[in-house]
Amino acid sequence: xxxxxxxNISSISPQNTFGTEEFLDNIVERNPEMxxxxxxxxxxxxxxxxxxxxxxxxxxxxxxxxxxLECAKGSSVENPDAIITATGLGCLADTEKxxxxxxxxxxxxxxxxxxxxxxxxxxxxxxALILQNKGYNFTYVHRGFSFETALIxxxxxxxxxxxxxxxxxxxxxxxxxxxxxxxxxxxWRNGAVMGEGAQFFMLSSEKTESSxxxxxxxxxxxxxxxxxxxxxxxxxxxxxxxxxxxxxLVVLGNSxxxxxxxxxxxxxxxxxxxxxxxxxxxxxxxxxxxxxxxVWCIANILKRQKLPFAMHPNGKxxxxxxxxxxxxxxxxxxxxxxxxxx
Amino acid sequence: MEDLIKNxxxxxxxxxxxxxxxxxxxxxxxxLFGDEGLGLDSIDALEIILLLEKHxxxxxxxxxxxxxxxxxxxxxxxxxxxxxx
Lengths: 342, 85
Hints:
The complex is a heterodimer of chains A (342) and B (85). Chain A has 342 residues and is of the alpha/beta class.
């Protein structure tokens, strides 16, 4: 069975992560006037050259397409065998625009553009159109499991020899109305901050000199009553003949929500104090596919052999060979990722 | 007629999200579609049909007439002023 290497990465996030050699050196704090962490957007004209295409694209489509094209451009082969995208809520602004026009115009005179662009697979389709890619093209919309499912599919494409290079990414956007609705549902009441972003990865079955890391495995699960995440994480490691002692760093996807982060607190209390932990959601915010930002961070950590202060302010790390990511969305969708240095 | 032309240009820019285009950049007599002029396409044509219905209460009865009516800002304005109730 073939392996799965991360050949190139890109990210548009609330931090300076796009088109820069920096790696979380200068942290962008949340604008105190904004209740959420908005992505820092590049000049899209430099990345999406066709003005006709660009003017129809909403914020989320531009983020996704620009991140994907940048990731593909920096890879050894620009055109992959497969394009797989993941999104929790898809092109939300266009969906809202279309649904609003249904109400305002009494189900008549509906603008075609918002409808066409509102579908979940718009981003994957636009990437394929621009790259003239006629390969496997799939979009996963599984709420808090969207990115994990996309990644599992990408790994299967590579390990089963269906593809040698897969462009896989995750995209989610904030809209003011989404924020208001989730706020009313109590999502941001206990310390978590909403975020958005687009992360893309060129996965390859071949290792190159510029590869970032090897993606060993991804596992997604839900916890039954009284079940602890530690048991699932230990079984996951056991499957790879490993224990927590073999892990150099644990990256935690806790959102900052005092109530929902209980599994993380339990997990931290179970692992030895010799195993360093780092966090990332204070940098990107919480959203359905925020784990992709965690994977982007780990790929950088393993390639650069550097753990940014912003992720781990309180300690030293002896070595960075094997990193485990434990993520959870709303304490419903839990996932574990294992990555190793090349 | 001048006001109508000015309004049409503003509405086109807004409805079609024409980036970096100002009303004064649009040549009133230049073709709206194809490589010359604004370079609009078939989805834009649908948006213009909606614009005519929404803002002027007009619809194009004979689709064959569309090509002539949609040729330029001037032909659109002529159609509106000739048919507006």
